[in-house]
Design goal:
- With about 300 residues, this protein is of the alpha+beta class.
- The protein has 9 helices and 4 strands.
- The protein has 2 domains: about 1-50 and about 170-300, no CATH class; about 60-160, Alpha-Beta Plaits (2-Layer Sandwich).
- The chain has a 4-stranded antiparallel sheet with strand order 2-3-1-4.
- The two termini are about 25 Å apart.
């Protein structure tokens, strides 16, 4: 009987304030869509870092025949210097940090360069003008600076480069996108809380006479407040459900069906990641409704 009464009051409240309840649903939907998008973007960034940072290498370019670098003033790197550099990488203190060392000769570098020069712009170059190099894969890419410091000053070394620099701009852009989405989500969440508060206030005012009668017959405060709290929770949870559905469809059709088929070398977030985020969106929706209800009902339904 009590459950039927509460559900009936919730239905009546939503029906009486249907326009405001719809506004709560839409604003919650938009705000939680931004929250979910920000979470998925951050998951994508972490996934890219785990994947790409584990594959990138440190390139130790050795002195060519001619170089403007003062460290190469003595000319091209010698065989003895190359052996000393390899020894530092494979047998010295850096050994635990180094997973694999690959040596690329001038001839190999020249062949790759010419293969990529389809227009023949650099056809006048010769193998002697190219730089030999060591390509070093680390067990932990975060240890780049240690390896760079240990090899940068060695005789025969021209420059040391970390391929992570290639992705730094991309990650900065994605991080900025996450911040923008999170900021918009915060603004829209505040708007959702204000709308939920307004909806509950209007519902409480329209039923003030009923709540007074319930207090007179001895109804508990929790019984009086429960229908109002459920109204906000139902509207917010509906918005969360729409947000989850939108994120799922976006990932399903834009990423799974389009991006993965167009750009195959990137490991994208998938539909399973949406279901990982979904429970948190529902929790946020209930929290928004709960906080708004507590703030509002203390004033409008107290004895």
């Amino acid at each position: 009987m009590r459950l039927r009464f509460i559900l009936g009051e919730v239905f009546n409240g939503l029906r009486r304030n249907s326009t405001m309840a719809l506004s709560v649903v839409l604003v919650t939907f938009v705000s939680l869509t931004f929250v979910g998008a920000a979470a998925l973007i951050q998951m994508q960034i972490d996934q890219l870092k785990d994947d790409w940072y584990g594959k990138v290498e440190i390139s130790i370019f050795l002195c060519p025949e001619s170089s403007r670098n003062e460290r190469c003033a003595e000319g091209a790197v010698t065989t003895a210097q190359e052996d000393a550099i390899r020894e530092v990488l494979e047998e010295g203190a850096l050994e635990p940090m180094v997973d694999e060392v690959y040596y690329e000769s001038r001839e190999e570098a020249y062949e790759k360069f010419i293969a990529n020069d389809s227009d023949g712009i650099w056809s006048s170059l010769t193998a002697e003008q190219m730089q030999p190099s060591f390509r070093v894969k680390l067990t932990d890419p975060e240890q780049y600076q240690v390896v760079a410091d240990a090899t940068q000053g060695l005789p025969g070394v021209d420059t040391v480069r970390d391929q992570r620099e290639i992705f730094s701009e991309l990650f900065r852009f994605l991080n900025a996108a996450t911040i923008v989405a999170a900021a918009l989500a915060a603004v829209m969440s505040v708007a959702a809380m204000l709308l939920i508060t307004t909806t509950i206030r209007l519902s409480a005012l329209s039923r003030r006479r009923e709540t007074q009668i319930m207090r007179m017959v001895g109804s508990s405060r929790s019984l009086i407040q429960m229908p109002f709290m459920l109204e906000g929770a139902v509207a917010a949870t509906t918005g969360a459900g729409l947000a989850i559905g939108t994120l799922y469809l976006g990932v399903r059709y834009m990423i799974d069906d389009w991006l993965k088929a167009s750009v195959t070398w990137v490991d994208y977030v998938g539909s399973a990641d949406v279901w990982t985020v979904a429970p948190w969106l529902l929790v946020i929706a209930v929290a928004l409704a709960g906080i708004s209800s507590i703030v509002t009902l203390g004033k409008y339904t107290r004895a």
